[in-house]
Amino acid sequence: MTKLAEEHQAINLSQGFPDFDTDPKLIAMVADYMHKGFNQYAPMTGIPALRSLITAKTNKLYGSDYDAENEVTVTAGGTQALFTAIATCINPGDEVIIFEPAYDSYAAAIRMHGGLVKTYEMIPSDYGIDWDIVKRLFSANTKMIILNSPNNPTGSVLSDTDMQCLIKLTKGTDVLILSDEVYEHIVYDGLKHLSIASYPELKERSFIVGSFGKVLHATGWKAGYCLGPENLMKEFRKVHQFSIFSVHTPVQYAIAEYLQDESKYLGLADFFQEKRDYFRSMLGQTRFNLLPCKGSYFQCVTFDHLSEETDVALATRLVKDFGVASVPVSAFFTRNTDHHALRFCFAKKKETLEQAVEKLMQF
Ligand code: PMP
Ligand code: GLN
Fold first, then answer.
1. Are 242 and 317 part of one and the same domain?
2. Which residues form the Aminotransferase class I/classII large domain (predicted)?
């Protein structure tokens, strides 16, 4: 969709990345570390200062006890953390439960390792989970469950009830959890992000994935991390060592210094809430039907009452005829389906959102 948007000079609310600047202070820090000579390989697991920052921040926010030496690895973005965790655990024939619509890298990575994707379909408008149905997806071959809260693309978040169901469901099994929490700091209306890290029964069987691209408005830097108990992290690092080995050195130093100021991540919820509220109030004036958005920087809409065309057809027409790019939500399903919904990314400047909605009003 980004390519199509560029071809048609449309406003791009499709791919999830900010169109505003990364903090110049942070950029200056990266440049400074480069000038100071921090330009060679970083340690395989990540520089100690960044690993300590990640574990201290996680432990403080979620009451966990991760150890910086053995239980976290710095990765080339959340995507590499996800891929490496899957490569570490999934063998041919292993089954992995995912919740669709789902971020598109999960199913691809599972299949690349011979795994079988078992899907639970979340239903609009709240995209909640009926755990009794999830239970029916379990078999002797179930190896892993992948969670994503706050969720891309639906904006839904898991509740404590969900976590308790998950504890019950996995108790006494060897099932692993891969928890994609890249939007952990982007939750709205005073809601609190519930991390797997806060639940000891889940934490002991889980990898947690984070992304500095989301935290620092710098998705192109591809910096992230994976947390996990020592026994799992030890295996994760074997794959990491021989696929990536290590991650951009000056960026790691700069992030470790910059995020000493916790307002840089604790302020994200307010920062994006202003954008979400503004975008929703404007979009509410179009004919689209807005779905709830409790977290992430994505807003989904449905259009059943407006058109019978597929979401792919409508997303394409919106680019070509109206000059706005979105992502058809059917792109987040493994089965060929028309979900009849569109996802808009609102991590954009106010004027971008305003111009986009002006165009969408014409529809
Ligand atoms: N998980 C989800 C749900 C995402 O939306 C993204 C970013 N698109 C990622 C993982 C990957 O993060 P990164 O850009 O750090 O690889
Ligand atoms: N997270 C981004 C999204 O969902 C995209 C990352 C990517 O394009 N691979 O739009």
1. no
2. 10-360
